[in-house]
Design a protein that fits this description.
Layout (H helix, E strand, L loop, with lengths): L3 E7 L2 E7 L5 H8 L18 E4 L2 E4 L12 E3 L1 H6 L4 H9 L9 H12 L7 H7 L11 H18 L1
Parallel strand pairs: 1-5
Antiparallel strand pairs: 1-2, 3-4, 3-5
């Protein structure tokens, strides 16, 4: 199979690689680049474990091909974590025991950051609706909603 050359900015660094045309973005990130924070769950775009940000939008990494990201900016959980962008969310998840096995956590954090990015303070129903595309089999979601709500309120207080 012929390989296709792509160039993308992954977590702020320019990456040039040759990839199989059918390789998904999440497989490329995990297997080629060693960025294993995004997980492979259902491989149908349902569970949210493979979530990454492409050009600022949270997408399912199992539903997009790596070649479709040629010229794109891709941010993984490693990138947003290392930059400190989600440090408050990570601390809130830990404080409120909003993670247990950790499999869903990267997708949950990226989704939560997308919700809170614009500085709004969503109500609990909006938070639940926003994370509804991310399956968690351990926590029951209560602690996750608590953590996201706490960060939203703290960020709003910091802006005052």
């Amino acid at each position: 199979m012929a390989l296709i050359d792509i160039t993308a900015v992954i977590n702020g660094e320019t990456v040039r690689e040759s990839v199989e045309p059918r390789r998904t973005l999440v497989d490329f990130l995990r297997e080629t680049l060693g960025l294993t924070g995004s997980h492979i769950g259902c491989e149908h775009g349902i569970c949210g474990a493979c979530s990454v940000r492409v050009d600022g939008e949270v997408i399912r990494g199992c539903l997009i091909l790596a070649v479709q990201c040629d010229g794109a900016r891709v941010d993984t959980i490693e990138g947003v974590s290392d930059s400190g962008e989600i440090a408050d969310l990570q601390a809130a998840f830990e404080k409120r025991n909003a993670l247990q096995c950790g499999f869903c956590t990267p997708g949950m954090l990226l989704s939560a950051q997308a919700l809170l990015h614009h500085g709004n303070v969503p109500d609990r129903e909006t938070i639940r609706d926003h994370i509804s595309g991310n399956y968690c089999r351990c926590t029951g979601y209560q602690a996750i909603v608590d953590a996201i709500e706490a960060v939203a309120l703290a960020r709003a207080g910091a802006r005052k």
